[in-house]
């Protein structure tokens, strides 16, 4: 008969565990894992190493992750074979719940579901669970109210860290599920609009910094308009010339166009020199008379 797996480990001791041997906790309250966050965590581990060990236990002759499933996933992404972990013992649900409740990065829904599951597991009153998690009774009642929201709302809010307890409590205070869904939907629309408006404001601010001040922009538009108007005026003049131009008229036209070309070229050269030199001081542009 083979030796039980848990006989190989001592409570509180650190072990190097092969990541392929570690299994997710089926009682884990956290159901959603952001892949971008795991990639960022993997990059941090690659740069700085594992700053906090995972915890694991033995259940039905398998090694189960109690805390640190994201760290295990990050190790797998990096191709690392082993991870440091501390061995603990206890029933899977209580271990996972207490681990989650003590964490600061849970969403409001994950925290509320953890508290509700722990209360059910231990069959305790609101007063007892409040003492267990170190919260006031009134706060605990609010947390449990959030945990009773319809599943669809909870699943959606689980992926949105900005859905705070205060916001979800406004939803939970509606007595019927349909009313809660309506309030939640309106809340989502409002927050999404605020996020978009904030992004647009930020982009506009960045664009203003890139393109310069309003005075410069106004003159750029004016020059663009002048170029269009000049081209239209020249086309109009050509269309109205019926007789052959005299030599004097030809010379005048050539002289005016030549002066215009030189003026535009001088402006162009001055700006190109200023921009390539990276100078920020204002330089006057001298425009010769036509």
Automatic annotation (TrEMBL):
The keyword Nucleus does not apply. One of its GO terms (cellular component) is chromosome. Residues 15-101 form the ParB-like N-terminal domain. Keywords: Chromosome partition. GO terms for biological process: chromosome segregation; positive regulation of sporulation resulting in formation of a cellular spore. InterPro entries: Chromosome_partition/occlusion, HTH_ParB/Spo0J, ParB/RepB/Spo0J, ParB/Sulfiredoxin_sf, ParB_N. SUPFAM superfamilies: KorB DNA-binding domain-like, ParB/Sulfiredoxin. One of its GO terms (molecular function) is DNA binding. This is Nucleoid occlusion protein. The gene is noc_1.
